[in-house]
Amino acid sequence: MRSGPLRFEDWTDPVPPVRREVVSHTEDTDPDRPPLLFVPGLGHGAWAFADHWLPHAAARGFAAHALTPRTGGALRAHVHDVVQVAASLPRQAVLIGHGTGALVVAYALGRYPARAAVLSAPVLDGWATLGAALRTNPAGTLPALLGGRLRLSRRQLFSPAMPDERAREILGRLDARPRRELVTHGPPPRPVGDPPVLVVGSPEDKVVPRGSLDRTAARYGGAPLLFPGMGHDLMLDVARAEPIEAILDWLVKEPVA
Fold it and tell me: What are the φ and ψ backbone dihedral angles of 9, each rounded to 5 degrees?
């Protein structure tokens, strides 16, 4: 499957190759349904989808794959990885990005003719996200502005219903070191092939303000599908089954699956 022409900078300044970690659930899936490629956001890896959303999707007949983002690298390097992995799948894929992974997917849509895309709690408005972070978690956010680690908090990622032990376990796995580019990037390109795009999120998200959700959804011609009471990490929070069920239902109802 072709993934779009090479750009000038791909020739003059090629993206450094890396060994890509992809976790897959493909057992007993329907070969007539498109594969799903999940792209996690800042500080997260394929593990964020591996325990719940991947097997849930596979149980509904969708071959499900999750990519762990490379450590460091510019935005275009992360986009390159998503395009390369998607192009290696046997059929035209659905791209599903979460957080800053949704930003990567939004850019990848300009190069890869996806069957469809889902932007989950999308961080496409970097300035609004930075403002929300400074209001909600200033002590954890300020070091990142000086090139240090972003220390995300329980309140930013999860609902109050999340058990303390599980929240601490997940927070301990995160290694978030944001780049300035996540705030200063330009608008993503228009998707090639005009695939359907679904935006999902929570009105209680402390990372992505509600206005950002509305603006992102409007960019793709719709309104966000909301899950009240959940935190930013829709795939890990207590009610994690609800968003993935809704996403899979949408894929089935759309001319996608």
Answer: -70, -20
pTM of the model: 0.93
**Cα 133 to Cα 52: distance, rounded to the nearest angstrom:** 27
State whether residue 88 is helix, strand or coil.
helix
Q: Give the distance from CA 13 to its chain's centroid.
A: 26
What pairs with residue 37 in β-bridges?
65, 95
CA distance 105 to 102: 5
Per-residue burial over 80-105, b = 16 or more CB atoms within 10 Å of its CB, e = otherwise? bbbbbbbbebeebbbbbbbbbbbbbb
pLDDT digits 0-9 by tens, 34-52: 999 999 999 999 999 999 9
Q: Helices 138-145 & 126-136, crossing angle to 10 degrees?
A: 130
What are the chain's domains?
Answer: 8-253 (3.40.50.1820)
Can you tell me the distance from the alpha carbon of 200 to that of 92, in angstroms, rounded to the nearest whole number? Answer: 22
